[in-house]
């Protein structure tokens, strides 16, 4: 049988996972992080709303700082993917795509979500993201498109919400249906019209990164924008939680209590994978709570963790 490797295994090395790791290691718990990379934070060209960084910081630079901080307290950072977790509180085993399984007393799931992308090649997508021609998060960077010409690709209530939010920054917002099917019902069209938001029939296709703009084909018509926001939904990475039998919301997010405990004893969750505001600050806050709860739950079950004063 694999030897117990960790008090705390954290799956995911984004802002949530790395914050949890820093806390857990400073609680003197043996802490392993397994991270597959390429999460949402890693894609941020420059965040300007994350407090403490006037002038902003790129997602990768922020993650680099956090990794350095985590390793300085003894966190064992491993690149890889966790495919499944089994066991129960006090003794879980995580199986990785490659490498030895990890045996751990408790688990924090910080696996995030992935935005659905419109059809566009990988290189063009990276270029558009880096230049702010394509953006995914109006809460994060709506400020940056103030008075710009903005397109939103999407349908239904989600696209209405996103376009209405952006309308607070600019009076030039156009929503383009992702497919040839009607994107909105009559009431939604009226709501958009009342806000002065233009609706263009889909399908949105042939997205091109231009010299100073981004363009796309909308039902055969080429439209140019300063920025396009895809509002196409996302995939929640909660398969590990589901495999453990944890309770999920209808959207697939992991349900947690006010201390970030999932419905499975010994398993905690933080960040975008939990329902709530999908922001770095929120992910970090939840992760601090998750790691502290994990520490206190382990201490309640393991007297030697309580330290000399409490022994
Ligand atoms: C383009 C863009 C711009 C953004 N701008 C901002 C901004 O300016 N300000 C802001 O506050 N927020 C911003 N966000 C949102 C922010 O990125 C997220 O809220 C934040 O990254 C959530 O952190 P997280 O740790 O939960 O998830 P993530 O950063 O997505 O990290 C999750 C990690 O888990 C790993 N993982 C998943 N499954 C497994 C597995 N089975 N095994 C191992 N590893 C796994 C992934 O590989 C990934 O590295 C932006 C998002 C995008 C896409």
Which structural traits does this protein have?
alpha/beta; 311 residues; 2 domains; 7-stranded mixed β-sheet; 4-stranded parallel β-sheet; FAD/NAD(P)-binding domain; binds flavin-adenine dinucleotide
Which helices and strands, and how do they pair?
Layout: E1 4-11, H1 15-26, E2 31-35, H2 59-72, E3 76-79, E4 82-88, E5 91-96, E6 102-109, E7 113-115, H3 122-130, H4 138-141, E8 150-154, H5 156-167, E9 173-176, H6 186-194, E10 198-200, E11 204-209, E12 214-218, E13 221-225, E14 227-231, E15 234-236, H7 239-244, E16 267-269, H8 280-301, H9 307-310
Parallel strand pairs: 1-2, 1-6, 2-3, 6-16, 8-9, 8-14, 9-10
Antiparallel strand pairs: 4-5, 5-6, 7-15, 11-12, 12-13
Helix pairs in contact: 1-2, 1-8
Bound molecules: flavin-adenine dinucleotide.
Give an overview of the whole structure.
- With 311 residues, this protein is α/β, with parallel strands linked by helices.
- The chain has two domains: 4-114 and 234-310, FAD/NAD(P)-binding domain, CATH 3.50.50.60; 117-231, FAD/NAD(P)-binding domain, CATH 3.50.50.
- Helix content is 30%, strand content 26%.
- The strands form four sheets. Strands 1, 2, 3, 4, 5, 6 and 16 form a seven-stranded mixed beta sheet that branches.
- β9 (173-176), α6 and β10 (198-200) form a beta-alpha-beta unit.
